[in-house]
Fold this sequence. Notes:
Strand order of the largest sheet: 7-8-10-9
Number of domains: 3
Shape: globular
Strand content: 5-15%
Distance between the termini: 30 Å
Helix content: 55-70%
Amino acid sequence: MNKKKSSVWEFLQGLGKTFMLPVSLLAFMGLFLGIGSAFSSPSTIETFPFLNHEWLQVTFQFMSAIGGFAFSYLPVLFAMAIPLGLVRNEKGIAAFSGFVGYTIMNLSINFYLVQTNQLADLDFVREAGQGFVFGIQTIEMGVLGGIISGLVVYKLHNRFYKTQLPDSFAFFSGARFVPIVTSVVLSIVGLLIPVIWPIFAFIITGIGLSIQKAGIFGPFLFGAGERLLLPFGLHHILVSMIRFTEAGGTAIVDGKEVFGALNIYYAELQNNVPISPSATAFLSQGKMPTFMFGLPAAALAMYQTARPENRVKIKGLLISGVIATFVTGITEPIEFLFIFISPILFIFHVFMTGLGFMVMALLGVTIGNTDGGILDFIIFGVMQGNYTKWWYVLIVGAIWFVIYYYVFKFVITKKNLETPGRIKVDPQSEYKDGHHVSLTGDKTKHKSGDSQYDMEAILAALGGASNIIDLDNCITRLRLVVNDGNLVNDDELKKLGALGVVHLDNQSVQVIIGTKVTTVRNGLDELL
């Protein structure tokens, strides 16, 4: 029973991690799209006539066209990223099989539609719920089609990548067998999807309707729910559902039906049509009061409530966290300083994040994209024009700053919380370069770049090499599958620089490092 439970947690945390690969590309491409559309729009050219030069406009239109890549091909990116991220061996074969499987699945769907006379005329493709994938007319499944294909490939890969065929077929054995069996299985899946797809569509539409029926509380529930799932690393799953499926809404853009809040926003941005407030209600604008103003205020409160002799030692830690959340929307370096030591502050933070989404929606702000930092504010807010109502972010943000600062300061002092700098520093340890690192370890070993992390000590605190089954990372945290979670020394990991440790169960463990997590992951890989 515990083994089954563990495998479920392992799968869920791995799935959430895999979503970040295509989403991070989408966020970067979104910047191209935002800049290109901002400087090529008629209103911007009218305001700044010097931009109306052919070579400039061609450049901006080129950026806009390139920025639309990830939006147009997002399903196949998911189909490849999911098996790539979830499997432990032969990752390249898994990604290749993801592309093969997704394409063949859609070819099979097309075959079924042709044979059953359900293939819609080109003038009525959208009305029939159909679309095109690499020129193949198929059922319009959006990103969910890529997720289905990716999950099937992941299961097939784990089952067959070691398969040994008889000598006469030995050439097709091992990893080579994975794309072969993938093509067979997903061709069958493609025949079944037209039959069962209405069930999937009904479930997703039901989730979307529930959110829509919540009215203005829909963005609140989304924002609060996303923060509530953060400690478990499962928030990416909820976010992806809202961004890329019918749960985040549907819209007709340039004659095409588009699913998901982020997809709708990018499609409208790319086609220079009015932005839908119902879509941006679930995007960057809702994060901005908390990410750009609230969490920096929380950091200031933690600094000012620290012991005077410790402030200089925690300043680097807090400043690096503030820069991460303010610029890029990476919040965990600040959040994990308080969410495990104060349920009150965590629930307050969850509530205020949801409230930020609701208030921005009520004010009619229309700022999209994914991160919620200053870059999104400038590129998708200020640069897009006054219709985005970007100034409300500054007004609401100032209010959030005051509220966060005084609430955090009051709770920290009232409850005597052990936030950074409020406990006496162990004479054998010290804050250095923004991280609490042990001075008893050998810092000359296994450094990566200018990192001060003691990799050997971290590995020992994880229970040693023999305790680690699988090691991976997302943007801010190590994601591990271990033999025995009881061997993981949480306190020692925190002394060595970790911001927090999450035990999903006895085998699935997450160690929150912050923006330097890749450095730690690479160092551990070298040791392992």
